[in-house]
Design a protein that fits this description.
alpha+beta, 12-stranded antiparallel beta sheet
């Protein structure tokens, strides 16, 4: 009888152990993805909330290695080499740790992805460390948030925000060398460049303040080679003419682009041309 009672008790205990009540995590896991230049950037982290607790110097400990979130250490990955605040980082996945004070934060990329939080953290496995200033904006972030901002052609900023504490660092992708190599291969050295290559080359030269005369030659060829040139192509030519200090022709070209945009029903380009014309008068 005792044997059967023990067996029954074991079954009941096992059943209780298996029948757990499932509740949402206090710090849910979040995945942030973005494209910076040509690099795919991904951040995976858990997001704790303040819930009435002090964040600065408490939930974000001062002068201690922090997992930059909750639960497992935050992970950040790059599909190709990038620069973080000017520091070279190879493509790959890293653990993102931080050390905060009231005035600055040390950003740490570790090659070890296996630690739970900061337990067992070893600085010998750091790939990179650099410091950034800490700001204390008036805006309040109840839940720890990592976000992108300030996107440019080849860079963006990554923000770490919680309550009224914020740190930020830049991510930069080597866009220019690759684009210039493509321009050389498909435009400068090509025997028969197409209209799209001429347009793309002109646009990149304009955006990066390169040789405005060559940019004008290329956009002119792009328009001439196109049976039905579009208002956005003509608008670019107007801007390049302005950069070449040819205001009369730039205004005339902008007016032409504006009429084309009206016909196409694109009021955004109508406004862009109006603004360009106003800036040249």
């Amino acid at each position: 009888m005792k044997k059967y009672f023990t067996l029954l008790l074991g079954i009941l205990v096992s059943g209780i152990a298996l029948a757990q009540i499932k509740t949402p995590p206090a710090s849910p896991t979040f995945e942030l993805k973005g494209t910076v230049g040509f690099a795919e950037v991904k951040v995976v982290y858990s997001r704790p909330s303040a819930n009435g607790r002090q964040v600065a110097g408490n939930l974000i400990p001062y002068n201690e290695v922090w997992r930059t979130g909750a639960n497992a250490s935050t992970k950040i990955s790059f599909s190709e080499p990038v620069k973080l605040n000017g520091n070279s980082v190879p493509a790959g996945e890293y653990a993102l740790y931080t050390i905060f004070t009231e005035e600055k934060a040390t950003i740490i990329l570790s090659k070890n992805l296996s630690w739970w939080g900061a337990i067992g953290y070893d600085p010998a496995e750091d790939l990179l460390r650099f410091e950034v200033p800490v700001k204390h904006p008036s805006s309040h972030y109840e839940t720890f948030t990592i976000s992108f901002s300030d996107f440019k052609r080849n860079s963006a900023n990554l923000n770490l925000k919680w309550e009224n504490t914020k740190a930020m660092f830049s991510i930069e992708s080597d866009v220019d060398a690759r684009v210039m190599a493509d321009i050389k291969a498909q435009l400068i050295d090509a025997k028969t460049p197409n209209a799209r290559s001429y347009y793309d080359g002109a646009a990149y030269y304009f955006d990066t303040d390169r040789d405005p005369k060559l940019a004008l030659t290329w956009i002119t060829k792009a328009i001439e080679m196109n049976e039905n040139p579009q208002y956005w192509m003509v608008h670019l030519k107007a801007k390049i003419l302005a950069k070449n200090n040819n205001k009369p022709e730039a205004i005339a070209t902008a007016k032409k682009s504006m009429e084309m945009a009206k016909t196409a029903g694109n009021m955004d380009y109508v406004k862009l041309n109006e603004q360009l014309i106003a800036s040249l008068k």
